[in-house]
Amino acid sequence: MKSPREFHWVIGDVHGCYQSLVELIALLPSSDQLVFCGDVINRGPAIEATMLLAWEMVCGGRAHWLCGNHEQHLIDCLEVDPQDGQAALLVIDTYRQLGDRQAREWLSRLKGLPLVYKAKGWIATHAGFDLDGNPDLSIRQRFWEDYDGRYGRVIVAHTPRPQVERHRHLVMIDTGACYGGLLSAYCPERDAVVQVCGDRKLNQYLACDVDKLKESFTQEMTTSSSLVSTKPC
Fold first, then answer.
1. CA separation for the pair 18, 36 (Å, rounded)
2. Less crowded by CB within 10 Å, the N or C end of the chain?
3. If we measure between CA atoms, which residue out of 83, 112, 97, 89 comes closest to residue 225?
């Protein structure tokens, strides 16, 4: 996917840190394009609100949302036979917070998420590329060590780092927002970074009664099939 806008901000793993995302967006120029580099969902305390905000910006033409390994895992589990996939779904934070009906309403949107975003001289994808040049949503060390710049500078998230890391052909922008680190946005045209604090309450999810969710699931299935700008913590 390509954008006519001159400047872009590629945002690392949000993981349901809604308030941090709101604060970050408020610091970014409203005329610039945003690229969510995958893993908008899971782990954080306000996943639904985060998804709705990201999707609203996609629909409004302001942002692009790339598929991450967490989005793909939810897609895979939702597409398995409901009875066989129930156990796997119940350990997914997004599913627990949304519930079965809403999670399935999101399925078609999630399946339509692109794997890469291309612009002049750079490309963004969640984790990297395999040896055949295909996006790999879970790759780590092998891509970091082998990538020779053939696709331009690649911006990836997926692996938390203490700070944004700039390498010759690679920029790593996941700074562990859901672990109490930072939520980072990187502008490749300006080589600039803007950051806000992530969620300080690690793994404090919305309360979810699993037994009630199982009951709801059963009922629904029977009725339907250089420059750095940081906001102080």
1. 13
2. C
3. 83
